[in-house]
Amino acid sequence: MLERLNQAMEHIESHLDQPIDVAELARIAVTSEYHFRRLFSALAGIPLSEYIRRRRLTVAGAEVLAGERTLMDVATRYGYGSGEAFARAFRAVHGVGPGEARRTGAALRSQPRMSFRLVIEGSGSMRYRIAEKPAFRVVGRKARVPLVHEGVNQAIADFVRGIGPETLGRMAALSDQEPEGIVGVSDRLDPSRAEGTGLDYYHGVVTGADAPEGLDVLAVPAGTWAVFESSGPFPRALQHLWRDVFTQWFPSNPYRSRPGPEILRVGPVQDRTEADAELWIPVERTSV
To answer: Is the pTM of this model over 0.85?
Structure first.
């Protein structure tokens, strides 16, 4: 898997002055475009689109300083339709406009080329199981919130705090299958997984029952799920679990992520610091 990812990275490098088709990158990596985007952001720590933009403006910066092409020629070569658009993008990355950089020989910022390699850390193992589920519903309350990678998601905390005990009781009574009890469900995430992008968050239950009036419903089709167990500091251990699933588990197992909601069931938080949890990720088996 890592070898194929690095072949995709080489393709990016050889096409920085051309349109880059993410579907072609996924084909090189022998996976789906959906999974490729998510795997890249987990491994690299930045969205794929942002990495490509930074690499383009890194090599464009070198050409600006070299002075062999006009600024408009450099802009056009790297996909910018106007000098103004190129100048805005250049300044956003380098902190200085291309004209000023050329006149003064200013120091520019560089996005290094990325490649992936396997690093073995510790001797721990991930606890997981594969579950097949028929179609079900998530019934509860929904809010559009920003994605937060580290620390408490205050938007979710405030949203949950505003759900009254009577509503929570109505939800809990509907739970009739795994994962049991009140769960947090994340759906319609931005493919980039960038900090601050939006997602639909449901606080509710997994059920086969019809939803009572006043509650939101998410219909989920039948499919395969990888279920991961976690114990540790709340919420850091849960956020690191998602990272570890994509950086360690997927590259080592014959599965890839598929579109669908992610479900998190958290047990009682002990002393407000420790918690046990299950993370349900929709997956499909790969053919290679």
So the answer is: no
